[in-house]
Amino acid sequence: MTMTTLQEMPQVQGCSASSCSYNAEEACHAGAITIGGDHAHCGTFVEISFRSGLDRTGVVGACHRSDCTHNESLECTAASVQVGSADDKADCLTYSAR
Ligand code: SF4
Q1: Are 12 and 79 contacting, i.e. CB atoms less than 8 angstroms apart?
Q2: Could you point out which of 36, 37, 55, 63 has its C-alpha 20 to 30 Å from the C-alpha of 71?
């Protein structure tokens, strides 16, 4: 079993969910996001009354969409992902059905 290191985790290249507390100027500042649910929903999306997060771009920490071509062992192997509104306010737009 090959382990993915934190450095190899795909960056959230852009996120248009500007109402999320981790979002600043269409960039994700969560340490790592989790994608899951029945439509590649960003499970880290949250609307709290203040802005938060880290001074760096977030990565995909885990992804439960095993039916995505980029998914391997419940981890994302894409070079980077885009998050934005699809079925929901914050979904992985890089999702591609096998
Ligand atoms: S590209 Fe696919 S594997 Fe990667 S986070 Fe999006 S849905 Fe998950």
Answers
A1: no
A2: 55
Alpha-carbon gap, residue 66 to 62, rounded angstroms: 11
C-alpha atoms less than 13 angstroms from C-alpha of 60 in its C-beta half-sphere: 36
Nearest CA-CA partner of 4 in 94, 73, 97: 73
With a 6 Å cutoff on the Cβ, whether 23 touches ligand 1 is no
Q: Establish whether residue 92 lines the binding site of ligand 1, counting it when its CB lies within 6 angstroms of any ligand atom.
A: yes
Does this model's pTM top 0.70? My answer is: yes
Q: Give me the residues paired with residue 71 across strands.
A: 76
* Probe target for ligand 1 pocket from 38, 45, 70, with the most ligand atoms within 8 Å of CB: 70
